[in-house]
Amino acid sequence: MSQATVKKAVDTLATAITDKPKSAQLRYKAEVVWDGDVHCTSSVRNLPPVPVDEPAAFGGGDTAQSPGDLILTALGSCQGIMYAALASAMDIELTSVKIKLTGNLDLHGLFGMGADKGIPPGFQDISFEAIIDSPASEEELKQLVDAVEAQCPILDTLVRPISVNGSATINGKPGYVSDKAA
Questions:
Q1: Higher pLDDT, 13 or 139
Q2: Residue 22 CB-half CA count within 13 A
Q3: 104 to 45, 52, 121, 165: CA distances (angstroms)
Q4: Averaged over 81-106, what is the pLDDT?
Q5: How far, in whole angstroms, is CA 55 from its chain's centroid?
Q6: Alpha-carbon distances, residue 158 vs 34, 78, 83, 142, 149 (angstroms)
Q7: H/E element holding 124?
Q8: Do residues 32 and 41 make contact, with C-beta atoms less than 8 angstroms apart?
Q9: What count of other Cβ atoms lies within 10 Å of the Cβ of residue 148?
Q10: Using an 8 Å Cβ cutoff, are 83 and 144 in contact?
Q11: 140: left (phi over 0), alpha (psi -120 to 50) or beta
Q12: Taking the model in full, what pTM does it have?
């Protein structure tokens, strides 16, 4: 897809949102099915299913990205897409964009052995580096970086407290809500 095609799509969406503000409201849905051991399959829309697995150290077959990998992948992919979209809207030509990401996890938290030490089960931190090559000026690229970091939905989701709710259906009986999911 060319930069002109991306620019046209971005402009079309911006116009649609301006003309019909309710069209800006999206709902994402996914379904994940446990396949056995530590392997799952995720499905979204009518796309091919995506396997999810753990490395051998966690009892997996190391055949697919793990959930932690997918968080980093989601952030990096969203940023890459935002670079393409916003660069096209700003008439900035991109030669290449690469996002390098790192997440640090302490297994004490994952295994429930860190609560007394304040160690959470999830990532303690995530860092990323965007490597951008472009014939545009440094000032234009700094404006692009600032725009991407201000508008990237996945980055925003990770850094802003949001409401996450959940429930479980246990043996056909729906409605159980744990203290954590409430």
A1: 139
A2: 0
A3: 31, 19, 11, 25
A4: 96
A5: 20
A6: 25, 12, 18, 22, 12
A7: strand 123-133
A8: yes
A9: 24
A10: yes
A11: alpha
A12: 0.90
